[in-house]
Amino acid sequence: MSRIFIAEDDSAILAGLTDLLSGAGYETAVLNGFENAPAQILAARPDLVLMDITLPVMNGEMILREIRKSSDVPVIMVTSRSSETDEVLSLSYGADDYVSKPYDPTILLLRISAVLKRYSRVEEKSTYRGLNLNTARGSLSDGSTELVLTKNEMLIFRVLLDKQGQIVTRDELMTALWDNEEYINDNALTVNISRLRQKLDGFGCKGAIETRKKQGYILL
Question: Cα–Cα–Cα angle for 167, 190, 153, nearest 5°?
């Protein structure tokens, strides 16, 4: 059963969404107050988040930006706002879909199902040095402790793992990160690789990433 986290401050809408999702076979979780909303959402480990933009303390777009620093959990923005600016901002911050209120319950359920199916197809679980890799959740685990990677760190690690033992060029990594050469930033790649290397070193995978000057990187 998929767990859906609802971040909504209108009690009537919240009750309606909870009933709708429960009736469709989903488990639901909600915010317990609006302080530390990103931490509450991540702690619940949902399979998908439904989030309003207009929320107390932190708006939905701010919460989304915080979540995306450490998690790739799918997020659908459900909001009464309908401007193109809000939709563009939400998608640029990492939202997977955007639904305007008032919404058609059937359409909303179809959107949820489509996003969950898309993520289930790309949720690849494999291993590295005895650690379990969960691409969709962006984590490595030894069974008791979890190392959470950012979205970019996981993309880099996934590319290196797919070609483990082979040299992966910086161009290949930057293409995977931004999927558009126009937005390549060499310094950002260096920072992400450095952080990934430090995290792996601290999680018992010392020397995991080897740099080959003028060639690229190898995951050992």
Answer: 80
Residue-wise pLDDT for 159-172, tens only, equals 898 888 899 998 88
Question: Could you give the C-alpha distances from 109 to 13, 64, 112, in angstroms and in order?
Answer: 15, 21, 5
Instruction: Give pLDDT, residue 87.
Output: 58
146 and 68 in a common domain: no
For the whole model, what pTM was predicted?
Answer: 0.57
User: What is the domain count for the chain?
Assistant: 2
Residue 159: its pLDDT value, please?
A: 87
Q: What is the 3-state secondary structure (H, E, C) of 186-208?
A: HHHHHHHHHHHHHHHHHCCCCCC
Number of H helices, E strands in the chain: 8, 11
Residue 28 lies in domain:
3-122
